[in-house]
Amino acid sequence: MAQGPSPPPPPPPPPTDGEKTRKISDIIGTFRPTKLFKLSKPDTHVTSLDFDDEGLLLIAACSDSSLQLYSARDGTHQKQLLSQKYGCHLARFSHHSESLIYASTKVDDTLRYLSTHDNSYIRYFKGHSAAVTDLALSPRDDTFLSCSVDNTVRLWNLKSQYAQARLNLATPYLAAYDPSATVIAIASASTSSILLYDVRNYDKSPFATFDMRQYDPPSLQGGNNIPEWTKLEFSNDGKSLLVTTNHVQGHLLLDAFSGELKAHLPRPYQPTWGILRSAPSLSPSKSALGQGDTSFSPDGRYVTGSSGADRDAVVWDTQGRVSKEGERKVIRPMCSLPCDRGKGAVVLWNHRFNMMATADTEVILWLPDEHVGMKPL
User: Fold this and answer.
1) Long-range contacts: 364-367, Cβ < 8 Å, 24+?
2) Span between the terminal Cα atoms of the chain, in Å
3) What is the mean pLDDT of residues 313-335?
C-alpha cells in the first residue's frame, strides 16, 4: 500500500484552560486535506467508509475486495484485510474497534463478521437472496439492520447468526437509526416514502410514513422512474433527517418528526456522472458502489458533501438562510473546501474529533487549518 508524499499530520497541541474544545461553527470553513492515502491500483475505488466508536480508526471497503484500515489519530495506514473470494462493501465497525461487519459482493449475499486482529471470521449472517444495499448499526447495542434488493429489511444481533425479525417492503434500500436508537427510518425508493418504526415494536406497522413524491424532481413526477437516493442519515441532535440524492435539485433536508421538507440542498454544480456513485435503485450499474456523498457534522448543524463537478467539498449550514426558488425552499452551500487531489465520492465525518474523510480512488483525511480562511462560493 503506497502512501501519498505528505508526512503524517503532527499531533494537536494540548488544550489550554480557556479552550478545551473548538466549536465546529468557528472552524467549519477551514478544513483542508491533510493526509492522502493511495490505493494499490489506480482503478480501485473506495465504496464505503466508517470510523470506529472512539474515532481513532477508519475502515475503507474497496472495489478490489480489500479492506484498508487506517489510524485516524496517527494518520497512518495500519493494515490490509483481503476478502478476495467474497468481495466487500458497507464495512461497519461494531462497538469493538477490532471487529466489523460487511456485505459480500461475490458468491452470495451473506453478511460477514470479521476480527481485524487476526483477519478471521467470527460469524456469518445468512438470509438475503440478493445484493445488500445498506447496513446500519444501533448506536446503543449490538443489533443492526440490513437492507437488500430482495425487498427485505432484516434485524440482526451480532451474537446470533439468525435474523431476529424481517420486514417485507418494496425496494427498502436505505435505513438509519436515530441517535437514541429508539426509531428506525427505512427509505423505499419505488414508493418515494420513508417509514419510521419504533424499535420496540419492529414487527408492527410504521408509526409514521413520510410521502416524498411531492419532493421528487419534475422528471420523475407522474412517471415510473425511481428517485436516486444514496444515503439516509439522522443528525446527531435527532431533529433532522437527510436524504442524499444524485438529483440536480439537491439533497432533501427533512424535519425528523414531521417529515416536512426544511430545504433542498443543491450542489453548486450540476452533478457529473464520473464523480457520483449510482443509487441502489439503479442496480445493476457500471458505476462503482457507494454509500452517499454527504455527511452531517457532529453538532448536527452542517452538512458536508461533494460539489458534484470538481474535487472540492462544500458545506451547507442547515440553520442558514432559506431562499424561495420557484416552489422550492433552498439552502445554498455557504463555502467551499478546496482539494487538489482526489474526489469526494464518499464523505464521512468523524463524530469524536474535528476530522473528516473523503474517498474515491484515494482516501483523504481533512483537519482544520488555522492559517487559512473560509473560501466562499
Assistant:
1) 364/33, 364/35, 364/36, 364/37, 364/339, 365/9, 365/33, 365/34, 365/35, 365/36, 365/58, 365/70, 365/72, 365/75, 366/31, 366/32, 366/33, 366/34, 366/313, 366/337, 367/9, 367/31, 367/32, 367/34
2) 36
3) 94
Q: What is the pLDDT of residue 189?
A: 87
* 215 vs 229: CA distance, rounded Å: 12
pLDDT classification of 3: cutoffs 50, 70, 90: very low
CA 314 to CA 217: how far, in whole Å?
22
What is the distance between the alpha carbons of residues 292 and 99, in angstroms, rounded to a whole number?
23
Interacting residues of 96 by C-beta distance below 8 A, sequence separation 6+: none
| Beta-sheet strand order (sheet of 208-211) | 172-177, 183-188, 193-198, 208-211
pLDDT of residue 139: 96
Burial label, 123 (beta-carbon count in 10 A; 0-12, 13-18, 19+) = middle
Q: Which residues have C-beta within 8 Å of that of residue 79, sequence separation ≥ 6?
A: 69, 116
pLDDT category at 375 given cuts 50, 70, 90 is: confident
Evaluate whether 306 touches 293 at the Cβ level (below 8 Å).
yes
**pLDDT tops 60 at residue 6:** no
CA dist., res. 149 & res. 169, Å (int): 10
Model pLDDT, residue 50: 98
Place of cell 417492503: 169
Give the cell for residue 79: 493494515
User: What is the band of 108 on the pLDDT scale with cuts at 50, 70, 90?
Assistant: very high
- 262-278 burial: b if 16+ Cβ within 10 Å, else e: bbbbbbebebeeebbbb
Task: List, for residues 173-230, the tens digit of each pLDDT value.
Answer: 999 999 999 999 999 988 999 999 999 998 899 999 999 998 887 766 655 578 899 9
Whole-angstrom Cα distance, residue 198 to residue 201? 5
Residues 6+ away with beta carbon under 8 Å from 67: 59, 60, 61, 80, 81, 82, 83, 88, 91, 100, 102, 114, 116
Q: What is the mean pLDDT of residues 248-266?
A: 95
